[in-house]
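Sequence design from tokenized structure. All designs in this work follow the same two-part layout: the structure record, then the generated sequence. An example of the structure record is given first.
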């Protein structure tokens, strides 16, 4: 599937506002977008570093995937998202290679991207996201 770059790194945090302060005041990055993704039960904050984004994730519900992740592993890197061209084919390719996919087909994620997740049990422990910006 030959990803073009790392689109974003998702980082699970307990408190979005507190963690945003670290990225702004220590790293000197600018938070350019906040977005709530209701079906994923998360609130996000975005920073751009080169062509890669940092996506901070705070759970909005106790039973959301990010809340469960933090309860089990603590705060930290939650997923890595690769930019691909032709996400449907990329997902099909992963399935053909025996990878368990979480999403049967791409759906809409943050910032209007088409996204699909691969299960960490099939990807050596790293929750892996494929994404495509079809507006470009
Ligand atoms: N990275 C690595 N491993 C993870 C993980 C993650 N982010 N999240 C869960 N796991 C592991 C767990 O540790 C657990 O491992 P063991 O079986 O060895 O104990 C296993 O996966 C199952 O975890 P669980 O806590 O029982 O949770 P579920 O099975 O209910 O869900 C998963 C796991 C990955 C299917 C679910 O979290 C999911 O669908 N994730 C994709 C969607 C998502 O994370 N959305 C939030 C991001 C928002 C966005 O950017 O759009």
């Amino acid at each position: 599937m030959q990803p073009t770059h790392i689109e974003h790194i998702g980082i699970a945090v307990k408190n979005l506002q507190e963690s945003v302060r670290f990225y702004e005041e220590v790293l000197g990055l600018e938070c350019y977008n906040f977005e709530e993704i209701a079906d994923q039960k998360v609130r996000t904050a975005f920073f751009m570093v080169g062509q890669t984004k940092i996506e901070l994730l705070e759970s909005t519900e106790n039973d959301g995937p990010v809340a469960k992740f933090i309860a089990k592993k603590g705060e930290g890197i939650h997923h890595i998202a690769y930019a691909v061209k032709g996400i449907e084919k990329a997902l099909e390719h992963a399935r053909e290679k025996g990878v368990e996919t979480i999403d049967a087909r791409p759906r809409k994620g943050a910032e209007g991207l088409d996204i699909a997740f691969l299960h960490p049990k099939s990807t050596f422990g790293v929750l892996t996201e494929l994404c495509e910006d079809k507006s470009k």
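Helices lie at 16-26, 65-73, 87-96. We note this feature because it recurs in several other targets discussed in the main text.
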